[in-house]
Amino acid sequence: QVQLVESGGGLVQAGGSLRLSCVASGTVFSIVMMAWYRQAPGKQRELVAHITSGGSTNYADSVKGRFTISRDDAKNTAYLQMNSLKPEDTAVYYCNAEDEFDYWGQGTQVTVSS
């Protein structure tokens, strides 16, 4: 079992930055990939970025060049650095970890004002 706790969300003006953190606990040695998803009101949850245990990353086209996913295995933590934020980035952001199962955090709200 893996437990995930996100933090770092908040209200920011367009063009600003935020860094989200996701701390994993439990059987963290089994995690093969960590990811960030987001869900805006009335929309489906979508993948923002993922990072494998080997460090390979992938990003949604809408965030390429603005967001950076990283992980610190010593701290069992994944990060999402979000720069040049836009109002359309407003959503609840969820951390996801994958071994043979999928695990989800409780979500953290990001609101970008215009």
Count of discrete alpha- or pi-helical segments spanning 4 or more residues: 0
The helicity comes to: under 10%
Mean pLDDT: 96
The gyration radius over C-alpha positions equals 13 Å
Which range does the strand content fall in? over 45%
From the spread of the alpha carbons, the general shape counts as: globular
Structural class: mainly beta
Please tell me about this protein's structure.
The structure is a single chain. The chain is an all-beta fold and 114 residues long. It has no helices and eleven strands. The chain has strands at residues 2-7, 10-13, 18-26, 33-39, 46-52, 57-59, 67-72, 77-82, 91-98, 102-104, 108-113. Strands 2, 4, 5, 6, 9, 10 and 11 form a seven-stranded mixed beta sheet that branches. Strands 1-3-8-7 form a four-stranded antiparallel beta sheet, with no helix packed on it. Strand 5 and strand 6 form a beta hairpin. It is globular. The N and C termini lie far apart (40 Å). The mean pLDDT is 96.
Summarize the structure.
This protein is an all-beta fold. The protein has no helices and eleven strands.
Helix and strand topology:
Elements: E1 2-7, E2 10-13, E3 18-26, E4 33-39, E5 46-52, E6 57-59, E7 67-72, E8 77-82, E9 91-98, E10 102-104, E11 108-113
Parallel strand pairs: 2-11
Antiparallel strand pairs: 1-3, 3-8, 4-5, 4-9, 5-6, 7-8, 9-10, 9-11
Supply the key terms:
114 residues, mainly beta, seven-stranded mixed β-sheet, 11 strands, 57% strand
